[in-house]
Write a structure and sequence with these properties.
Elements: H1 2-6, H2 21-26, E1 30-33, E2 38-40, E3 53-56, E4 59-61, H3 65-78, H4 86-97, H5 101-109, E5 113-115, H6 120-129
Parallel strand pairs: 1-3, 4-5
Antiparallel strand pairs: 2-3
Helix pairs in contact: 3-4, 4-6, 5-6
């Protein structure tokens, strides 16, 4: 995933979202669309019956999505007045969650992704390449 190859050796690595969507689903995680990124562990009296919830903003993927994301990431990286790297963090998060077409299909099923590219593999390739050569000093969604 993008986290392992792009963080400098001395930077802290994100801890919450470092697994593929299909692995988290098999472990009992549930994905829900939301306006922000959030993780809620199962809790309460019947915690063993509950599923951990990953709330993620939904994204529609079109032919123009990759250049748009690349330009927004470049803007965040180059503009010193931007302190928080929300778009870059979101791209790292999605790259972490998506490793294959199966991960894309799972996120589509849970209304996190609306893939208008056609093949799930195309969306997977987009996210597997979006963070190459991008350094993220601080992950915004911890």
């Amino acid at each position: 995933s993008c986290f392992r190859r792009s963080f400098p050796n001395n930077a802290p690595k994100p801890s919450h979202f470092s697994h593929r969507a299909s692995d988290l689903d098999c472990a009992g995680g549930k994905f829900e669309p939301d306006t922000g990124v959030d993780f809620k562990e199962a809790s309460g009296l019947l915690w063993w019956c509950s599923r951990a919830k990953f709330k993620i903003p939904p994204l529609s993927i079109y032919d123009s999505t990759e250049p748009l994301l690349r330009n927004l990431i470049a803007f965040e990286q180059c503009c010193p007045s931007i302190e928080r790297r929300h778009i870059t963090s979101y791209a790292f998060l999605m790259d972490s969650l998506i490793d294959s077409a199966a991960d894309v299909e799972l996120l589509e099923k849970n209304n996190i992704i609306n893939n208008c590219l056609g093949a799930s593999e195309d969306a997977s390739v987009l996210f597997n390449n979006i963070c190459k050569d991008v350094v993220l000093d601080e992950f915004d969604f911890e």
